[in-house]
Amino acid sequence: QVQLVESGGGWVQTGGSLRLSCAASGSIFRISAQGWYRQAPGKQRELVASFTNGGRPNYADSVKDRFTISRENTKNTVNLQMNSLKPEDTGVYYCHANINWQEYWGQGTQVTVSS
User: Fold this and answer.
1) Are 15 and 114 in contact (CB under 8 A)?
2) Residue 30: CA atoms inside 13 Å, Cβ hemisphere, count?
3) Which of 25, 28, 36, 95 is an S-S bond match for 106, by CB 3.0 to 4.6 Å?
4) What residues contact residue 31 under an 8 Å CB cut-off, 6+ apart?
5) Residues 18-47: pLDDT tens digits?
6) What 3-state class would DSSP assign to 44?
7) What whole-number distance in Å separates Cα of residue 73 and Cα of residue 42?
């Protein structure tokens, strides 16, 4: 059984930083398309940052130059470093991955940025 377990998140003031991590566990043969999504109250889930099959990072325009996605292949982990946080970054952040040709989601972690 494959699982994605997220850590990090929390509360921070405007301009602060947070780091999210997502570790994949279980019988893993192939990982593609790892990334992070978020969902603000009353809004649809949206892509924040991801790695494409080509390995290059992809960012939403709203987070470019503030967020950095990285991964540790030996640990099947993907991280999201979030700097210069704004109130509009508030939401539940979900880890996503395509593992063994199936889609998986983490349980979600709350990020709250106060003004």
Assistant:
1) no
2) 7
3) 95
4) 24, 76, 97, 98, 99
5) 999 999 999 999 988 899 999 999 999 999
6) coil
7) 35
